[in-house]
């Protein structure tokens, strides 16, 4: 189950064997996959599917840069909670602060990340303004 509270979206992840190295520890690049899933599921929960956005609005999102700070490792079988919150935006970019916790938000902080993405025209790959309805949805605080 996911939730959005005060502009914070959470997404549960279970660590599978395929996510780990030979020692059963999550391979570092897989945290980026976990974060991508949380952002994608947040958009989906708000009613924004990336496939239809590309097809119907000729709009895509691409990651411009990432920063990741690894604090502690996750291991095979761990239950993780991945968070996403909009931290900054410009006309055509949006940045997310993300964290990965073991055993929920009250658990152990494992990874911190900052991801910046751009909105592009799917054909020309040139920057395009973020849809205002999307920004409004990301900034909304649920009742």
Layout of strands and helices, then pairs:
Elements: E1 3-5, E2 8-14, H1 30-45, H2 50-57, E3 59-70, E4 79-89, E5 93-102, E6 108-121, H3 132-139
Antiparallel strand pairs: 1-2, 2-4, 3-6, 4-5, 5-6
Structural description of this entry:
This protein is 22% helix and 40% strand. It has 143 residues and is an alpha+beta fold. The protein has one domain (3-137): Hotdog Thioesterase (Thiol Ester Dehydrase, Chain A, Roll), CATH 3.10.129.10. The chain has a six-stranded antiparallel beta sheet with strand order 1-2-4-5-6-3. Strand 5 (93-102) and strand 6 (108-121) form a beta hairpin. It is elongated. The two termini are 18 Å apart.
Overall average residue pLDDT: 92
- Beta-strand proportion: 35-45%
Total domain modules:
1
* Helical content (DSSP H or I, runs of 4+): 10-25%
Strand order of the largest sheet: 1-2-4-5-6-3
Quickly give the structural class. Answer: alpha+beta
Q: What general form does the structure show?
A: elongated
- What is the CATH superfamily label? Hotdog Thioesterase
Describe this protein with a few key phrases:
3 helices, 143 residues, six-stranded antiparallel beta sheet
